[in-house]
What we know:
Blueprint: H1 10-42, H2 54-66, E1 90-95, H3 102-112, E2 116-122, E3 132-135, H4 140-150, E4 154-157, E5 171-175
Amino acid sequence: xxxxxxHTDDSLIRPWRLAAFIAAAVAAVELLLLVIVGGxxxxxxxxxGTHRPAKAKAAATAKATAHRTTPLKIxxxxxxxxxxxxxxxxxxxxxxxxxxxAAATAAASVSHHGYRIGGVANAGRTDFTRSIVMYRRGFEGxxxxxxxDLGIRIVGPLDGLKTSQLHGANAVLVVGA
Length: 177
């Protein structure tokens, strides 16, 4: 019996569509299971007995803080004390804000507090928004005392200056805006 190629029977096409749909659904479920199992294997496993519910953790934390009688203290080493008197500390004053005469005015204030002035000059930049005190190695106590005397909060070791550029000064004051 001959079958005509022009005539298509819908009953032959539909089972293939249904079979393809079922196969895709099964593949999607398998992929989902593989992702879940793989994630469980890759995830860091917990040791037995270490997993506690959130309520138990919160209760343990509250119990621990309730028994604490003294607050926690942070132990910091105190900054070194100044070894030199103010008369023996030399300060280089740099104008870091670009206003004419700002370094000279600050140098007069530094001198009024008893420090020696090692020089007055312009800083390499003129965009300092705050005044800062920098100190040479071994002169942290003197630098912190200078900053405290002048009411300056930013204090640190030399940054951006070489010791040879200080002309013998122990500390540097950069005047900001």
